[in-house]
Every structure is written in structure tokens, then in C-alpha cells.
Amino acid sequence: MSVELLDATALLLVAMMRAAVPLALAALGELVTEKSGVLNLGVEGMMLTGAVAAFAATVSTGSMTFGLLAAVLAGMAMALLFGFLTLYLLTNQVATGLALTIFGIGLSAFVGQGFVGQTVEPMAAVSLGALSGIPFIGKLVFGQDPMVYLTLALTGGIWWFFARARAGLVVRAVGESPHAAHAIGYPVRLIRLGAVLFGGACCGLAGAYLSLVYTPMWVEGMTAGRGWIALALVVFATWRPWRAMLGAWLFGGITIIQLHVQGMGVDLPSQVLSMLPYLATIVVLVLISRDSTRIRLNAPASIGKVFHPEG
Amino acid sequence: MAHKPSFMPRLEPRGHASPAMVYVTPLLALAVTLLAGGLLFQVLGFNAPEALYTFFVSPLTTAYGLGELVVKATPLALCAIGLALGFRGNVWNIGAEGQLTFGAIFGGGVALACYDMEGWWILPLMVVAGMVGGMLWGAIPALLKTRFHASEILVSLMLTYVATLILSLLVHGPWRDPEGFNFPESRMFSDSALLPVLLAETRLHFGALFALAAVVGGWFIIARTFVGFQIKVMGLTPAAGGYAGFSQRKVVWLSFLVSGALAGLAGVSEVAGPIGQLQPTVSPGYGFTAIIVAFLGRLHPVGILLASLLMALSYLGGEAVQIGMGLPLAVTGVFQGMLLFFLLASDVLIRYRVRFGRPQQEAKA
């Protein structure tokens, strides 16, 4: 292969990995939440709140660090609302999650009104001098933005947590059998609240990546269904972190294909290409769900069920 | 060792669900929403009573405003009654927005095909086409759920995005008005393809009667048919339904076909009513707001009718504070979300009592 082709391929792969970051972050957060037995359908709402908080904080303070921090806090605040309702007021998780999404869409549009049309300086890629200059792997391995590495580290960390750490085992126990965990003496609701808050923080970060890095601006409803695709990715991954990352790359790839096909002169209406991620989600869901035994074996047994310690 | 008295509130399960609380909690939620909304306005630097008046009362002071209330309540009630049927049976169709869009596409397609024609039969044909369109779009998640166990929540939602893109494709391309200066809109429908206005000087149209019919029909299915009973049993205790020989598949199919048809009816009523043509967007999220309407109305058709009027008011109120006070239209979504949150939170009172202090047994020990 010629050097140009190699470079072009590397650029495509870099673009794919960038497109995958928000999906992966949101899916990883939701994965941890679901492992504890809680289904939070508010991913889209938390992402949007994170996106607008990150953008507003960055524009106001001029610091991207503050922006990321604001996104994490905003996502966690939304998750806290959800956790309080579902865990302490024992509301239906599906209905409450939908409410969180509807509220997040409205709230973010409301807050973001004053920030439409502004831009921020996008996050710079890391540069390791000579290493980043190596053909092909230079850009791919040593020249991405910091969030790409953070996402990979998070994937590994979550895998380690559930596979190797004692605390991870406790979270899994709470998700599989909350009553047994309660009987042994674990604070089921607190552990679940922790998992829900972690999910909120990740979704906030996912939103921040969209409004600060991927397309550095605020647009109403800019997540465009990514929160829902992330929810589908968790099922696709059968609740395993590395498979969630893999799924995010797959969907990142679809997004990139959609952008590049038109550039290559293929005569398809833009709307047909825009449909691809949504159609692909449906196809993936069907393929993975048709084996219902596998889903049953992998899904946390108590997912979506209300838990009340007094019975 | 003496126990210190504890004033932490606890939830104590009631023996039976409280029937009174079923009616009290929506009002409680509304009251808290008004308080929180007033607080929000105050924080933003507006006079709270004045802002609340602009939001909740001023839209209703004119005959035109009252007409608009019904115009906006119509699609909400139509969608919500279908959704409530499914929610009762634990079938989560959250893609009513997409089914509504497909109803608009099918119904609007008939209107455009009959552009040069006249006749009484055009409108009924559009209505049927709209219902079929919504039903077809609802059949996809039902099929994938019953055959492949794919989550109906995610599939119906993804299809909403697809439906919106198909509509956009049509009005940007083959269905674009040839004399429309390249705007992405279809022709205006001919008079034979428009729903008659019921009240002069308003936009109140025939679709409101569809909504009333759906209320009656929905009540009949839920309260008076065996199918309605099966849905309820499958929702409350799927195991009991299974022993009784009720079929989960049937409940899924029925929920999606009925709610799809009603959402489709809402869609065709919008394009043949207040809009009068096909545009890239035919709904400001009625299909999603209908989820709130269904819960607020306690999944009961009469409750849904009242809730749809209240939610319609939240759209009008959003417009009123936008025009009158320069607030963003998104305030509507904030109010809708808050109301649903407060409702879900106060619903805990239906099955639990709030008690202060330690549990009885422990206090005696």
C-alpha cells in the first residue's frame, strides 16, 4: 500500500474512533447502572444536559476542564433525580427514565437558548513528537484527543471492576438478587444509587464530547438519538464492557461511512444515509435478541424491578 | 439502651392501593409543578404570578385560544389512548411520533394523488390511509418483538427517526410543490382533502370528534371487552395471564396495531386539519408528550381527555410566554417534564403511607 492510502485509512479509522466516543461513554455508564439492576432510559436526556452544561461552562469560564467538570456534575444531578425517584420513591423505572429524557430535552433547549451560534476552540489532539509522526500508527495510536484514551481506559477499568474486584462482585450481586444482597447486609439502595450516579457522570461526559470536541457548538437536540443507540449497544454487548466498545466502533464506522459516501460521489439522498445508524440499531437488536436464552443468561436478573427493603 | 427518636420519613406499604390517591396525586403533581414553575420564573427574574398567569390563563381568554386548546389536545388524546392500552399491558410503544408521521405520509399521499379531483370520498379515504400507515409503522416493532424478542422500546423509537427522514425525503423530492419556489413543502391540499372547521373564527376542526370517538372506543375496550381484561392481567401479573392461557403475543400485536392506527389518525388529522399540506415536520413532539398524557390520565380514556387538554395548554402557554415575555419556547418541555416527575413521585402515595419515627415493632423492643 502506498503511503497516501495508508494515511487516508488512518484518518478514516481516527474519525471512526472519535465518532465512537460519545456512544461508548454513554453505553459504558448505562452498562454499570444496569449491572446493579436499574434500567435508566434517560440516557438521551442526561447526555443533552451534559452537552449544554459543558458548552455553557466552557464559554463562560474559557476553560475546557471546567466544561468537562460541569458536564459530569450535570449528568450526575439528572441521575440523582432519577435515582431518588426510582430507588426511594419506588417509581416505575421505564416511565421515570422516559420522563428524564423528556425533561432533559426541554431543560437543555431552555438553558442552551443563549448559546446557540457560539463556538469554542475544540480539544487538541495529544502530540508525542516523533511518535505521533510515525506513518499510520502515529496518528492512530499516538495522535488522538485525550477523551479517546480516557474511553479506552474506562472500558478496561470497568472490565477489571466487574471481573476482578470484590466491589464489582457486590454490585453484580445487587443486580442479580437484591433481596439476597440485602439479607447479607449490603446497602442495596445506596449501591444502586452509586451505579446510577456513575452512569449519569458518563452520560454527561458523552454529551460534553459532542458539544466540545466532536462538533464544538451547541445545537438543540444535538445528540440525535445517540443516547438510545447507546442503550441498544448495552444489549448488543450482552453487558460486557469490551463488546460495548466494539459496538461503539461499529456504529462510529457507520456514521463515518454515512459522511464519506457522499463525498465519494455516490448519488443517494442525504436522508437515506442519515437513516443508516437507526436502521443498523434495529438490525443489530434483532440479531442479538433472537437468541433469547443468551439475553436471559447475561442480563442482570433484577433489571427494571422495584426493590423495597421492607418487602 | 434507649432508642433515639427518629424523624426520618419512612414508606410503609398499604394493604391495598388507595383509590382516593389515584385521583389526588395528579392534582398534587399539578400544584407542585405550578409552585416549581413559579419559582423558576422568579429565578429567571420575572414576576412569578404574572408569568404563571401568562402561561396558564391568558391563552384561554379568547374563543380562538379555546379553539387552539382543542386543536392541540386532539392529537395528544388520540396518541395517548392507544399508548395507554399498551402501557396497561406492559407494552412500551414510545414511537407514537413516528406512527403519527407515517399516518401523515399515507393520508397526505392520498390527498396529493387526488389533487385534481373532487368528491366526498377523498377525506374518508385519507383517514383510512392514515390509520393504515400508522398501523403498518406500528406493526414493525410488534413483529420484531414477537418474533425476535427485540426491545419494542428501542425499535419503536429508532423508527421515529426513520419516519421523520422519510417524510423529509418526500417533501424535498418527489412530493415537493412544483410552484413552491423550491421550499421543502408539498402543495396545499385541495378543499376536498381538508377536514371541515367546526367553529367559525377558530381552527377547531373535525378531528376533535375523532378524539372523542377514541375516548369512547378506548373506554369500551378497556372496561367492557375480554381483550381489555387480558391486557390488564398481562400487565399486572404476566404469570397469572400465562396460566389463564392469555397470549403475550396477542397483547403486543393488539397494543401496537391500535396505538399505531390512532397515532396515524392523529397524523392525518394534523395535515388535513390545521397544517393543510405536508411539511418536513408535522408535529412538535405530540407523540412523545402523549406518553405524559397517558400517565397523567391514569391510563384511563376519560382521564386522558382531561390530561390532553392540560398538556395542550402547556404548548399554548409556552407560545404565550415566548411572545409576551421573550422566554424560549422550550419552557413547554420543562413544564411537561416537571409535571411527569412530580406525578411519578407523588404516585408513591397510592401504594405506601408516609410514616415518621421508627417502625412500631422496633419501638416496643
Description:
The complex is a heterodimer of chains A (311) and B (365). Chain A has 311 residues and is mainly α. Chain A contains 14 helices and no strands. The N and C termini of chain A lie far apart (66 Å). The mean pLDDT of chain A is 90. With 365 residues, chain B is mostly helical. Chain B has a single domain (12-352), classed as ABC transporter involved in vitamin B12 uptake, BtuC (Orthogonal Bundle). In chain B, 68% of the residues lie in helices and 3% in strands. Chain B has 15 helices and 2 strands. Chain B has helices at residues 19-43, 48-56, 63-88, 96-113, 122-148, 152-172, 207-224, 226-236, 238-243, 248-275, 286-296, 301-325, 331-346, 348-351, 360-364, and strands spanning 9-13, 352-356. A two-stranded antiparallel sheet of chain B has the order 1-2. At the A-B interface, helix 4, helix 11 and helix 13 of A face strand 1, helix 5, helix 6, helix 11 and helix 13 of B.
Based on CA atoms alone, the radius of gyration of chain B comes out at: 23 Å
**How are helices and strands ordered from N to C of chain B?**
EHHHHHHHHHHHHHHEH
Question: Under the CATH scheme, which architecture of chain B would be assigned?
Answer: Orthogonal Bundle
Strand content of chain A: under 5%
Low-confidence stretches of chain A: none
Question: Short description, anyone?
Answer:
The complex is a heterodimer of chains A (311) and B (365). Chain A is mainly α and 311 residues long.
Labels describing this entry:
heterodimer, A: 311 residues, mainly alpha, ABC transporter involved in vitamin B12 uptake, BtuC, B: mainly alpha, two-stranded antiparallel sheet, 2 strands, 68% helix, globular
